[in-house]
Amino acid sequence: MLETLPIASWTGPYAPEMKARALAGLESGAVLFFPNLAFALAEKEKQFLDARVSDGKAKNISRDPSGKLQSTALTGKPAKDLAAMMARFADSTSSLITDLLPYRDVERARTSFRPVQVKGRSQSKISDDRLLHIDAFPSRPMRGRRILRFFANVAPASPRHWHVGQPFEDFARGFLPRIGPDLPGKSWLYEKLGVTRGRRSLYDEMMLSLHDTAKRDDSFQANSPHQKVDFPPQSCWLVFTDMVLHAALGGEFALEQTFHLDIDQMAEPNLAPIRVLERLSGRSLS
């Protein structure tokens, strides 16, 4: 479940055996853990280690690729400095992925800063990241594209507590029989109403159903196989969150960068969730 890599620099070159371990582990469903890799904050950026930088309306502060900052209480120069810190993190993670992995057509998506303590946060089951889940976007159809996320714990002292669950294929095999057919025309209607950015594919609908059904199942959450992982301060990790069941149980002050890529970029495309689900369901999900 965890592939530990002794990388301490955001740029390569990295040894060929290190790159091979990273690729094989990532695509097979491991979390790549970098215990010696820290995203160091500048002195002026340490002011952002305060939950009050959030506007309190969303779980995370986000910066989209155009530079627009959302869900922060900051304005003026402090907001610009926060956006600059997040942009620096996005650049750092992009450099590492380019040098470590063979993927050459990777889309950089949103960057997020997570200043609020996870533990004790009140939210609905579907939105609760403390429950084991795979990532699926309700409003942004992926149509089989991968969701790759890079995390950094920038907290001064507290670890980030995660649970990592069973392999994706085992999870999907258990839950697919419980997923009913979608309402005819729902994806078309959601696109026309602007609920989604484009039309959901059968894959998107299936992934959302798996996400929601797992979070609503109290027995699964309590009894399914999982491993506790604590990511210490000044460490980083990388994972395909559309494949790896995960839950964030506690921690504050984390940065996260999302990337998207087509499965033809992968060394082993048949390990992608869309191919696993097609094999288990016996139907095309494109």
Structure, explained:
Helix 3 packs parallel to helix 7 (273-281). The chain has seven helices and eleven strands. It is globular, with a radius of gyration of 19 Å. It has an eight-stranded mixed beta sheet with strand order 1-2-9-6-11-5-3-4, with helices on one face. It has a three-stranded antiparallel beta sheet with strand order 8-7-10, with no helix packed on it. The protein is α+β, with helices and mostly antiparallel strands. It has helices spanning 16-28, 76-100, 168-175, 186-193, 202-216, 218-223, 273-281, and strands at residues 2-4, 31-34, 61-63, 69-70, 107-114, 146-153, 160-165, 226-231, 235-240, 246-250, 254-261. The chain starts with a strand and ends in a 5-residue tail after the last helix. The protein has a single domain (2-281), classed as Jelly Rolls, CATH 2.60.120. The mean pLDDT is 95.
Topology of helices and strands:
Layout: E1 2-4, H1 16-28, E2 31-34, E3 61-63, E4 69-70, H2 76-100, E5 107-114, E6 146-153, E7 160-165, H3 168-175, H4 186-193, H5 202-216, H6 218-223, E8 226-231, E9 235-240, E10 246-250, E11 254-261, H7 273-281
Parallel strand pairs: 1-2
Antiparallel strand pairs: 2-9, 3-4, 3-5, 5-11, 6-9, 6-11, 7-8, 7-10
Helix pairs in contact: 3-7
